[in-house]
Sequence to fold (147 residues):
Amino acid sequence: MYGTIPNPKKTITIDFPIEQVKVAARNIDKVMNFCHFREDNDIFNSYKFSRSEFLSMGAIIDINLTQVSENKTQVDIEISRQIGAFDEWVEVHKANKHLEETTNSLASILKNGIPKSEQQEKVANESAWPVIIGIVIGLTVLIKIFG
Fold:
């Protein structure tokens, strides 16, 4: 280990209210592969995720939000190692990819909403069938009574 390299950081200001960005930030693990929610603090508008990496302990993604105005939010993203610090350019390159993916995931959620998981869609479809069958039976009974 020759020397540590500062954690990669990115700050952007986007034209969305902070409440909408909070929802997007809290749900990036629904869009990013190998990303796992760790903790949040809604008072300080901070969110922490872990990112799994092949042959390493992985990285930590810290997201902090600051309201700039009613419709503008500043997003600060920092990538750090789970254990230790960055000391090779390959690690920093991978961390910069994490920054890019985190930014793209936020943008995707803000644009398209939170994606439903396959399990949520399956439950929604399964719960619709009893309602449809109940309506058909109810209409059949009403037609026989009044018909």
Observations:
- The domain at 9-115 is CATH 3.30.530.20 (Alpha-D-Glucose-1,6-Bisphosphate; Chain A, domain 4).
- The helical segments are 18-26, 89-112, 118-146.
- The first strand starts at residue 9 and ends at 14.
- The beta strands are 9-14, 35-41, 46-51, 59-69, 72-81.
